[in-house]
Structure formats: C-alpha cells, structure tokens
Amino acid sequence: MREIEVDVAVIGAGSAGLRAYRSAAQYAKRVVLIEGGDYGTTCARVGCMPSKLLIAAAESAHHARGAAKFGIRVAEPEVDGRAVMERVRTERDRFVGKATAVTQKIPEADRLHGHARFEDRNTLRVGDDLRVRAGSVVIATGSRPQVLPMFEGLGDRLVVNDDIFDWMDLPESVVVFGPGVIGLELGQALQRLGVRVRMFGIGGFVGPLTDPDVKAMAERHFQSEFPLDADSRVESVAREGDQVVVRFRDGEDELREEHFEYLLAATGRRPNVDRLDIGNAGLALDDQGLPVFDRYTLQCGDSSVFIAGDANNHLPLLHEAADEGVIAGRNAARFPEVAPGHRHCPLSIVFTDPQIAMVGDARAELEEGTYAVGELDFSAQARARVMGEDHGLMRVYGRYSDGRFLGAEIFTPRAEHMAHLLAWCREQGLTVAEMIDKPYYHPVLEEGLRNALQMLQSRLEQGRGQVRP
Fold it and tell me: Is 181 annotated in some ligand binding site?
C-alpha cells in the first residue's frame, strides 16, 4: 500500500472542489484533488448548461408559434428532435471539455484518481492501493438524482436529468414527477418541443416559491401549457411493455390512466456522502446522515473536516458551491485557524417562461407582522405588453422598523435581470426608498420593479410605528 502525506485533501473535482483546491493551495504546501469519476462539473455535464441548451431550442419554437400576435404569419414550426438533441450534446461536450481542461491544468502529482473513503478523520483510502494522510479534508463530492422506491421496475423507461441530454431524439411523451426547478425547466421545454408532458407533484409545491399568490399564478400559467397537478393522488406507476402506465385520481376524484414513453424523476438530489465511509471520520451527523457543519466556516463541528457545495445540501447552486469551496479550502489549509467567510445574498433563478426568481428572504422565512409587501401584476406592464409577454407577478418585501429591503419572489418575464439588481441592493443594505431613488429607463421591465417598490414604500410608511419589529 503506497502512502503519501499532504496538508489538505479535497475530495471531488467539481465546482466546489476546484475552488477549494485553488484556495487551499494559496496557504498550504501540498494539496491534492481526488476524483473517482470523469472530470467536468455537474453544471457543465448534466446541469445548468445542457438544460439551458434544451430550453433555448424550446424558446425558439415557442416564439415562432407566438408570432401571429404581432401580425406575423408563419407555418407551424417543425421540430427536428434529432437535430435538437445533436446540438444539445455537441455544445454540452464543449462545455465539459472546457471544464476538464481547467482541471487538467492542475499539476498531475496533485490529481489523484480513485474512489475515496475515510479510514479515520485524517486518513483516506483512495482506490485499492493508496492511503492519503491529510492534515485536513474538504468534502466536495457533489450530489446525484434521488429516485423514489415507487419507480423501481421501470428499467430504461425511467430517466433522470442526467440521462436526457444523451438522448438521440425526442420522445413522444414524458411524465414528470416533481415540479421543482429541474422538473419545471425540463418539463416546459419538452412540451414546447412537441413532447406530450404531464407533471405530478406532492404538497402543492411549485418550484421554490413560498408566496401563496405568486405560487398560485405560476401554477395557473404552467397548467395552461401542460397538465400539472402539484398535489397529486397517484395510485400506481408501472411498466407495461415499453410504456410507463400511471394511474391517478383527477380533480373530480375519478380514477384515470395514462401511458407515457418515459418517466422523468425530478424528485430532488441526494448528497454523495453515503459512499465515503463517513462514520469512520467520527463526525456528528444529522438525521439524513450528513455531517453537521457551520454554514459560514463550512467546518464540521470542531474537526479538521470541511464540507462544501452540493455535498452539504444547503444551497445547491453553482455560485454558492464556488463561494463555499473558497471558504472551505482556506479554512482547511489554515486549520486550526478557522474564520467565517462572506456569504452573499440568497439568489436563485429558474429558467422557465416566465422565469422564477427568489432573492433574499423568502416569504415563508419572514416573521409575521414585521414586514410589508409590494407587488405588481405584469399583465398591464408596458414593456411586457410590447413584447407580448404580459403575464407574471412580482412581490417584494420590506421591514417596518428601518425600511430596508428584505427579499422578493418573482414570476415574470426576464426575471433573471431584475433578480440580480435586487440581490445587489439587498447585499448593500439599501432601504426601499433608496432603491426607488435610482434611474429607471423607459420603457423597460424594471419600471415594473419600481412600481412594486413604490407600493411597498407606501405600505411601510403607513405601518411604521404601528407594528413592533
């Protein structure tokens, strides 16, 4: 058994792991990066980028179908499924290649290939013939799709998002379980590309939304494009030949049966810590078997082990994974000198149409009686009507005690841009009045944001002094 000693061992060469390696290397003499699979991040290979390629194709078809409202007569677009998927795969491979090239620039001696697992808190077995003794360890092993037991037996009729981007052609029909971020993005894109889609959820969830009014509008809009039951009553899921058969109760409590070519399981992701022999590290674990950690230092308890990115299941987003990698790598290299790192304003975007965005505090996180709400329905917003995208709702929240902006839940066209503006304002600690007193061009969608903020400011002024913070 070959043995090496290092200052820091980083497990996982994804977005968080790469940042952790570079961060640690600034402070430590010997840092190694361990990867058991192929190089190329989750985002590039099966996440952000290939999904946006599919969405871009769907948007092109959708815009062609909607040209008539502008007086433009075009024939029904013909979707060439094989050509669509060829472009998705080609561009996906390009993104993966670029991510792989970045990883391969790391000195070969610092890149270890093999499955890592803990022998003890500071000792890792990599593959069958290497033992790594590390002063500290960063766990950055990412996550994988979670498949529910009820889908067992579907064989190759069951797919997750990882599988879709390797399709050679588009199928005739797909049933989607899970109207979360992945389910909504891929489900709407497939529907617009001519695939028959039906979507089932549990508990009434629609993406990450918690504001009842915004969620209700989003649900109605998606239901106008494809059948969506966010609180479904599915009786059974089974395979019959090459079909997936779903039996469910409809809104009238009638038992129905539908057949689909594939079932897309978009029922969440699970962190890849269950294959690390994590129990040997002697860490405190939560009820899901994940290490208990501090979200500002990424340290697991008071140990020399740190956990970053999707592996900790806190904020499974690329920009958060990158930030966490930097913090975890620095603290691992400087252990036992551990310091909290800067965490940015929470920001998430769902690339549906309209887009969904969450900024700062979600409605469900706010303490009742301490905040006011402003809103704007985009059905009458000037720029939205010009573009023919006049649908959506934005709600913004501000604190009575000091007038500061707290957060927003958005379901509007081009929400990605307004979400960034709001995140920057929240991070700078601006008041709602200060946000209103900024330049707004005409006509732009951001004028709708100003309208919502003006309503919020009015309500803050009416309620100030009446509600205790």
Answer: yes
* DSSP 8-class letter at 79: P
Domains 2-145+270-334 and 347-463 are alike in CATH topology:
no
For the stretch 438-459, pLDDT in tens is 999 999 999 999 999 999 999 9
Asked if CATH classification 3.30.390.30 holds for the domain at 347-463, the reply, yes or no, is yes
Cα→Cα distances 199→27, 205, 231, 296, Å: 49, 12, 10, 37
First to last CA, the chain: 62
Task: Report residue 465's pLDDT band, with 50, 70 and 90 as the boundaries.
Answer: low
Band of residue 251 on the pLDDT scale cut at 50, 70, 90: confident
Query: What separation in angstroms does the CA of 265 have from each of 47, 145, 146, 150, 154?
Result: 14, 8, 8, 11, 11
Active-site residues, by number, are: 442
**149-267: which CATH topology?**
FAD/NAD(P)-binding domain (3.50.50)
369-391 core/surface letters (b: 16 or more CB in 10 A; e: else) = eebbbbbbbbeebebbeeeebbb
- Distance, in Å, from the CA atom of 211 to the CA atom of 185, rounded to the nearest integer, reads 20
Question: Is 183 labeled as ligand-binding?
Answer: yes
Which residue, chain included where needed, has tokens 């820091």?
A: 8
CATH of 2-145+270-334, one of 3.10.180.10, 3.40.630.10, 3.50.50.60, 3.40.1380.10: 3.50.50.60
d(CA 174, CA 197) in angstroms, rounded, equals 5
Return the domain boundaries, the chain: 2-145+270-334, 149-267, 347-463
Residue 378: pLDDT band (50, 70, 90) is very high
Average pLDDT over residues 11-21: 96
Rounded to 5 degrees, what are φ and ψ at 55? -65, -40
Q: Does 149 count as an annotated binding residue?
A: no
Residue 310 annotated as lining a ligand binding site:
yes
Report how far residue 358's alpha carbon sits from residue 210's, in angstroms, rounded to the nearest whole number: 9
Q: Which of 321, 411, 318 is nearest to 363 (CA)?
A: 411
**Residue reference for tokens 């939560």:** 286
98 known member of a binding site: no
Query: What is the residue-averaged pLDDT of the chain?
Result: 95
Torsions phi, psi for 247 (to 5 deg): -110, 130
How confident is the model over 143-188, as pLDDT tens digits? 999 999 999 999 999 999 989 999 999 999 999 999 999 999 999 9
Give Cβ neighbours of residue 5 (< 8 Å, ≥ 6 apart).
Answer: 30, 132, 133, 134
